[in-house]
Amino acid sequence: MNRFFRPLALGVGLLLSAVLGLRAQNVVKPYFQVGELPDLVKCLPPPPAFDSPEFGYDMMRYAWGKQQRCDSVRAAIAKRDAVWSYEALLGEFAVPFGLTVSEQATPEIWKLMVTALTTTDAMRVAPKAYYHRQRPFERFDDKMLTGEENDLRGEGSYPSGHTMRGWTCALLLAEVAPQRADTIFARGWIYGESRVIAGAHWQSDVDASRVAASIAYDALHASPEFRAQMLKAQAEYAALTAPAGLAVAENDASQFVNLTDAVPDAILEIRYFGTYNFVGERIDGYEQPTALLTRRAAAALKAVSDDVMRQGYRLKIYDAYRPQKAVDHFVRWAANVPDTKMKDYFYPDLDKSVLFKQEYIMDHSGHTRGSTVDLTLFDMKTEKELDMGGTFDWFGPESHPDFCGNPDTGKYTGNNSKSPKGRTITAQQFANRMILRRAMMAHGFKPLSTEWWHFTLKDEPFPSTYFTFPVNYLP
């Protein structure tokens, strides 16, 4: 070898060895080799033949999937769900799980998920090769929503690797955070449906893949290393999600009163007991159409009621104490992005997917501490609600107390620039909001900057306690 090239080759060799050594350190060691795991060829039934009655259902679902592509929000979810990486997968579960999982922020959860999924991913290879089922887009010589044709053409369709990975992910995350299982599994279900919408898989592929994921998940528990890592992941999750000073007092309503006992002139319209609310159904935890408040908050609200009665109004209550179960219901609903049946009434200007980001829906609510109330005024002269220029629970800047005016001075400005659709309220409507605001603040309540109807007692007795008992009439 030329004397010039010999040291160069040696240097390149050393560099290559160093790079390979670094890669070797990052290689994930699975909990089991694929030969030690259940054989899905033996576990799963064969896919429906193309001339079978069962395949008729696959055809119907294929047509359903193509129809779903017309929904821009659902189509966008399906495109995101097609990205084949652990980062993308776990990112989709961040909201229902309550944490963004990453190697840096959640190292124990990350290690659990990546090692478990690396172990189980390999199980799909054998049945795909054995059945070599033709994919929907190939059978119909069709275009996929996600543009994966070149990558997937010729690869077996049964089972669905994405669905198996997504459902296994849901099973694992639900074990880490069982209190969030509802929302986690709801997102996992959507993940599989995305493959039908994309045109990558038949419905029977997806159905079998959820069974395959369950088989894989069960097999993981035979590994002592997996079980030990699961305990580490659960401990990490608990540490990262425990609110400072949180003290949950389950079933302890001893410091609460029926609001109508404390404020007999109040009118109740408990929206979350009925179906006219942003979810469109009765909310979990609202077992009777009543309102509860802490004794201290109820006493302050009685003073507000007496004040506005002298002005010719009565208080009308939409919500007061809200159990954590109800908040969890809101979170579960928000994670189910395609459910938009009440969009026209409460959030017509927003995509449902932004409700978490813009904090219209949150994991905890001040209502759950028992001293927050949502309310309006009822005009005794007209026998109607006072016109506030907007409905309770409207998601948008039009609900802000400073919309079209200055709440500190009470002056109307007409500035509606915050409204994305140019909506506005009149000077009288703004003035009506101020009547409620002044009365509440005069008797110890503080307003919220985003909702004209929402007030919390300043000196609330349980500032760090989130109660869980249901809304029922108290004896």
Question: What would your notes on this structure say?
Answer:
With 475 residues, this protein is an alpha+beta fold. It has helices at residues 5-26, 40-43, 53-68, 72-81, 86-92, 94-97, 107-121, 125-131, 136-139, 149-152, 161-176, 181-198, 203-220, 224-241, 259-262, 295-310, 324-335, 343-346, 427-442, and strands at 256-258, 267-268, 292-294, 313-319, 372-379, 384-385, 405-406, 411-412, 445-448, 451-457. Strands 2, 4, 5, 6, 9 and 10 form a six-stranded mixed beta sheet that branches. The chain starts with a helix and ends in an 18-residue tail after the last strand.
Tell me the layout of helices and strands.
Layout: H1 5-26, H2 40-43, H3 53-68, H4 72-81, H5 86-92, H6 94-97, H7 107-121, H8 125-131, H9 136-139, H10 149-152, H11 161-176, H12 181-198, H13 203-220, H14 224-241, E1 256-258, H15 259-262, E2 267-268, E3 292-294, H16 295-310, E4 313-319, H17 324-335, H18 343-346, E5 372-379, E6 384-385, E7 405-406, E8 411-412, H19 427-442, E9 445-448, E10 451-457
Parallel strand pairs: 2-4
Antiparallel strand pairs: 1-3, 4-5, 5-6, 5-10, 7-8, 9-10
